[in-house]
Please model this.
Amino acid sequence: MDANTPKVPKPLVLVAFEDAKRRQVVCDVLDQFGLCTLTTADGKAAVDQFLKFLPDAVLLDDQIQAPDEIAACKSIRALDTGCETAIFIVTERDDKQAVERAFSFGATDVIEQPISLSVLPHRIQNAIEMARSLSDLTGLIRAIPDLIFVVNENGEVQDGLSGPDATHTLQLKALTTASKINFYPCENDDRAIACIRRALETGKPQVYEHVLEGLGIHLETRFVTRDKNTVLAIVRDITERKSAEAEIYNLAYFDVLTELPNRELFSQSLERTIKIAKRDKQKFAVLFIDLDRFKRINDTLGHSIGDKLLKDVARRLATCIRATDSVALVDHVECGAIRLARLGGDEFVIKLYGIEAEETVAMIASRVIQALTPPFTCAGHQFVVTPSIGIALYPQDGQTGEELLMSADSAMYRAKNTGRNNYKFYSETMRTKSLHRLDLENLIRTAIEEEQFELHYQPKVDAESGRLVGAEALLRWPHPERGAIGPDEFIPIAEETGLIVPIGRWVLREACNQVKVWSTSPIGAVPVSVNISSHQFRDSGLVEDVFGALSDAGIDASFLELEITESVLLQDETRTLVALNVLKEAGISLSIDDFGTGYSSLSYLKRFPIDTIKIDRSFVKDLHKEADDAAICAAILAMAQQLGLNVVAEGVETMQQLEFLRSHGCNHIQGFIFSKALSATEFYAMLVKIAKESAEQLEKNLATA
Ligand code: C2E
Ligand code: MG
Ligand code: MG
Model:
């Protein structure tokens, strides 16, 4: 024998024979076969020995007495440890009565006299093995936490097999066997019966799940074929697994904060809705809701207040949806109940199914706005949160869920750009626009990488003398394939995408370098004005960028002016004020561009360190035609004089405009009347020309003197 093979103890056989010689013969045969033996001569000793040694098999001779072999067999069987032991009783040949008796009192087998010594050990060995398998099986059944029934093809329970452990795990301790049957899917459950028949027909196990209503217990029943007519129904309590599954599902598909469906679940439901809408030729709407200025609340008051606010918003939106039900806008059942979801951050989305009229959608959008109108109270603070809503309609605004969401999203952007707290429908024109936008965005990125941008410089002159006082740097984009793309077209996109920050940084450096170049001209350096977008102000690096550009170019700060719009002054007052003061103290001039078109809160003219205001060219344009425009220009000039501010009029094209501005005390003008924006080379040439002209003039003056 291999030393590694585990030693299995040899089976032990108790030989209870009265006759010592017979006993010896049998023991010798069994020993030779490899079985261990133990002997006794009477019934009582046999039972005692059994209790003491727990043999695997017992051989009882019909000669033993006190008690006899039948009584001994009965006693052993009655023991807990003896119910599965192989017990053989030796009988006289053809003693039918003795055979009957032996079996009826629990004998495993009967051995007739004369005993065949060659067969005997094999029969004993087989019986021991079978008894062991049976005991394993019973142990197994006892140990598994399932209820096992034998069931016929009509689902009727024929027998129950499971042990006490199953009732324990199934939390059914208190139940009787009869009521345990309740845990087996009912006999008149058609689905269960169909599974049973399928198991019988195919021979393959079938799985069936059902819930015990009221108890909240989930059960899984496996039907496994047992024979031609019956199956085993193995019932398992899967309540825990189900609740774990539900938890995983919740984590994957619901937003933890608001408990609303998340983007994933919404997207899935959107695809389903599209399928149904296509089939039923129905329309539906997607409302994309974004909270205005939520980020500011979150940043300034902290995330816990932000979170609380989002929860409250979700709650109000949910009531909105419920309110729509009462207007008979009940969602198509098949479309699922998902009509409100949180996509992330401060973005929510609502799906309205089966709506014919755009007016109805619009009405619900206004209802959302109304629902969010009353101030929210969090931790003693009161906030007003307004939404911007973009609406996309199926089928016209998108064929897939993704397209619809994108359309609704860009409609939302339009709502935001047109004053917030409102809603906008997406339309086909918007789609082409947004495609164009996307296209431009990519082109801008390439332009930055490939340095396609140029700066042109528009001269600013003194209104009285016509003397050059400075230049405004204006971006030009001569696209290699598309030709010139105007700043009005690409700057808004550069701003939306944040690309204005790197572009603006480049403009600052380029303009400062140009001043350095001009300083070599015959008339020396000329101050330059650079347009700064409000986005650059939001980016904290602006002040460093400005100082970096100045020192790298090696020019004095007094040669740089920054043009900002009124919106900059409104954005984050304290931060802006600090930044502007730092710039101002360094010697940089500040001017307000497009004055009069923005919010025109005059108080900031006093509060911020402004040097110059630039009257927007829309007022200058119709000066001589529109009395209002003339009045506005006159008023701005008068006010500027009072405040001691310098004024530049933009877009001056005619003598009439020039005369008017001059007579009202405008200091400087900028416009086609003097020059359009010039390339750097053209501008330098102009400087040379001016120097030459003034030299000639000087010469003339000297000559006439
Ligand atoms: P802006 O700063 O108000 O610039 C003045 C605009 O008026 C320029 O348009 C200029 O070419 C135009 N203009 C000047 N004189 C006349 C005139 O007599 N008649 C007419 N019809 N137009 C005149 P441009 O170059 O197309 O720039 C448009 C806007 O793009 C600028 O308005 C400015 O807001 C923005 N922009 C241009 N360059 C930059 C830049 O480098 N950075 C930033 N952030 N914005 C820039
Ligand atoms: Mg400007
Ligand atoms: Mg302007």
Notes: The chain has a mean pLDDT of 87. The chain has four domains: 12-138, 144-244, 257-426, 439-691. The chain is about 50% helix and 20% strand. Residues 593-594, 614, 616, 650 surround magnesium ion (ligand 3) (CB under 6 Å).
